Amino acid sequence: MKFRKARPTNEPLMTEGMQRLVFSRRAMIVGGTQAAVGVVLAARMAYISVVDNQRYRLLAESNRVNLTLIPPRRGWIVDRYGKALADNRVALRVDIIPDRLRNRSAVVARLSGLLGLDAEAVDRVNRDLDAGSGAQPIEVVSNLDEARFAAVSVNLPDLPGVVPARGFVRNYPTGPSVAHLIGYVGAASAEEYAARRDPLMLTPGFKVGKDGLEKDFDEALRGRPGARRAEVTARGRLVRELETQSDRPGQAIQLTIDADLQDFAARRLGVESGAAIVLDCVTGGILSLCSMPAFDPNSFTDGIGRLEWQMLNDDDHIPLLNKAMRGLYPPGSTVKPMVALALQAHGVDPEETVYCAGGYRLGGRFFHCLGHHGTINMRHAIEKSCNTYFYTMGHRVGYDAIAPIARMMGLGQEFDLPGTSQRYGTVPDSAWKQRRYGQAWSGADSLNATIGQGYLSVSPLQLAVMAARLATGRNIQPKLLLNQATSNAQPLAIDPAFFNAARDGMNLVVNANGSGRASKLAIPNVQMNGKTGTAQVRGLQHGSSSSWRSRDHGLFVFYAPFEEPRYAGAVVIEHGMGGARAAAPVAKDILTFLYDRELALSSLASLEAGWGGTMRERLERRYSALRAQTSGVANIPTPPANPTAAEGAER
After folding, report:
1. Mind listing the pLDDT tens digit for each residue in 560-579?
2. Are 471 and 565 in contact (CB under 8 A)?
3. In a domain? residue 99
4. What is the pTM of this model?
5. 292 near 428, Cβ under 8 Å?
6. Quick one: which of 270, 487, 494, 530 is 20 to 30 A from 605 by CA?
7. Would 390 be classed as within a structural domain?
């Protein structure tokens, strides 16, 4: 075997010294890198511990400490004497936070068993959960008793997302009596939260104004929230309470309303559909503003259910409409005293007479009167509500001469009032008709408008203002806030002497042989002046009918006392078949209440016994009957977020 010789190489041999040198270089590189990393880490740690110290301290504190906002108590809404129209009461409730909820169907079913919820309540909760945003609380139930509240609290470990709480809820002591005056509150919607991004809106139990004065004065009524700090475990269990900062209640709002009169007037309207308004003739303050039927605002506070919403929405008396400010009606003969002012302003002597043979002929048409009154002057034409007299004089001066006085007396006006928006109706004239219909004004138009029919439409509030201005001769402006009601109304630009015939005629209506004589006050030394009106429902035949919607409206304007007027107002009864029959008795009882409360309440008790109880009792009975009737029925309509927002479409 042959072996090759190893080929000689030029590479130097690695000596021990060279190996030590290479190792030292590598060690320096590694050591330097480690030192650099150490310096970076040390610098970062120094930055975190010094510069970012506060941030991480807050993060650590938030993991250990739970901060909960306490919803502020809403400010009270009180009447002129400080009596509550809207206040707060202590309540126990249960809410669900949607983004903390796990196994929704199981949790809702468990809550239903613990709280005894019916199918309607469970359906509402599921509907609210479907519509709710992640962190926005959904109210399950409020006004709980201690036993059911404790049952939920004990079972909280098995109810993720469920939050029991003690707090305050909005309360309306007289319920339906103030529904259209005060409005109501409810949980903030997802849209309201998106618009403001206020975390308070996500706090369980917090409510915002949804309608009426509650909505208009929401910012002032809200107050400032409190806060509660509590130490909790990593799983959210309470360790101990650390600190509580109390909430600051919202500002109180004082109205011109007389709470007792408001409740009485609303109750006295009874089962009718209509409105009643009473004004203070000295200051213009609104003492009562009622629209019936109404809803119970306490139901909206807790979240109205489908069935109750269906009951309100299907009611042909439209309980969601504020008829006092948004209802529009032909005023009928209630405008005749106002027309008397306009006639005198255009040269008609109140002693001039007209012969009434049962009507007035204009061309080929015959316009009927309510009777055959013979020879009659202005005062007695108001007393007897003689259409023939006003046809004759209205045709003489023309309605273009009357319309400006109608507006001066408050018709067609929108007043500076908070709360529900107003509809101002129509005071027509030739320019209006040409603009609206492209047609010339006719003599027939003047005749119809002169007796409060035709194109003329007004609200009950406007009629009440007209009555106050007739009573005082001053430019009375209605007010709802007590600090705005003053006695500085200026005289109207009408000769004071012109009011005498109008006032005398209104006195004869009630206190002589006029249509309102059955409603004469039984109060010593107090006389009520008034004017009845019967307004034909447009498009329907005049007169009574078995169909409620085809009956005439009944109206009445009034003031008292005759010599020194203090109160003025209007009552409108939809389809009441006449002012003397339906509206004047309500006005009589309202004024009786102001002078003899015991007598008025005694009379009301008898009436309510015949109607089947108080407003709340009748509402509850209707709801119970509907609930029994529709048990198990599907496809009940869902209530909108703001049920009163669309009511204007009804008229």
Report:
1. 999 999 999 999 999 999 99
2. yes
3. yes
4. 0.83
5. no
6. 530
7. yes
